[in-house]
Write a structure and sequence with these properties.
alpha/beta, Rossmann fold, five-stranded parallel sheet, two-stranded antiparallel sheet, 8 helices, 9 strands, DUF58, DUF58 domain-containing protein
């Protein structure tokens, strides 16, 4: 690492850059969250709550106060009005901040910035719905409140992993929580398998969202090309890049099959998103997929 990074001037400049980016990230995430219709994620079973769930026929032993007399007056039977049990759920989010996530092949946000924005927007939706949210890499459990959003935003803007590819190292997630992992998932999958297996053992269900730049899907390279990892640790030069396209696309498809299979085994869902697509559409899909469990 360059020793100049440790000078007071450079430290101050980096801190100021992070401080200026933080309000932008929060603002963008909150605007994005505002585009999604808010609502509580109920458990779809009877219990204490305010939201109407269903009517059922009155049974012996039901107290008179539980009978809905207006509904019962429409027929010859008595009906009980049940509300939906609404318990505060916990949402755990992992954002891959390794070097590969910095990639952007054009005038588009990096994969990392899109992941950060979606993560914070999801947390905003959860907390506004009375739930708790947190980051998987932090020791603190998911919490609610505006202060938690600020803490998450600060953590997301810290220096990331300097390795080429990231692997989830989540703290123990609450029993029955939901989780979202945002990454390109291009690195070795072994740690991901461990993380999802451990989560499934604790009744945690979630989503893997693979975020890719369009160039990583199309492989639009031809002729002499130098490929270099974002960290600079790996470099490969070829005179005929087009000859690599078929093998690359095959391996990308194989990786998706692996991720899909892992999700099937652990009860998670696999989704994809490209950085030239609408962030709002991605957020809506995630929010819908994280809806009530059946």
């Amino acid at each position: 690492m360059d020793a100049a990074i440790h000078t007071p001037g450079s430290l101050r400049a980096r801190s100021e850059a992070e401080a200026s980016a933080l309000p932008q990230l929060l603002l963008h995430a909150e605007r994005l969250a505002a585009t999604v219709l808010m609502g509580h994620h109920g458990r779809k079973r009877a219990g204490p709550g305010d939201a109407f769930w269903q009517y059922r026929s009155a049974q012996p032993g039901d107290p008179r106060r539980s009978i809905d007399w207006r509904q019962s007056a429409r027929t010859d039977a008595h009906f009980v009005r049940e509300t939906e049990w609404q318990a505060a759920q916990a949402l755990t989010i992992w954002v891959d901040d390794a070097a590969s996530m910095q990639f952007s092949g054009g005038d588009r946000p990096s994969k990392l910035r899109r992941a950060q924005t979606l993560a914070l927007a999801l947390a905003t939706l959860a907390i506004r719905a009375g739930e708790r949210a947190g980051l998987a890499n932090l020791a603190e459990p998911p919490k609610g409140g505006r202060a938690q959003l600020m803490a998450m935003a600060n953590s997301l803007m810290q220096d990331g992993d300097r390795s080429d590819y990231g692997t989830p190292r989540p703290q123990t997630m609450p029993w029955g929580a939901r989780a979202v992992f945002l990454s390109d998932f291009l690195g070795p999958p072994e740690k991901l398998v461990d993380a999802l297996t451990s989560a499934a053992d604790r009744g945690v269900e979630g989503i893997l969202l693979q975020i890719l730049d369009p160039e990583e899907e199309a492989f639009p390279y031809d002729g002499r090309t130098v490929f270099q990892s974002m960290s600079g640790a790996i470099q490969f030069e070829t005179l005929k890049a087009s000859r690599l396209r078929e093998d690359y696309l095959t391996r990308l498809a194989e990786r998706r099959d692996t991720l899909n299979g892992l999700c099937t085994r652990t009860g998670w869902r696999f989704m994809t998103h490209h950085t030239d697509e609408s962030a709002g559409a991605a957020l809506l899909s995630l929010h819908s997929a994280l809806g009530p469990r059946r």
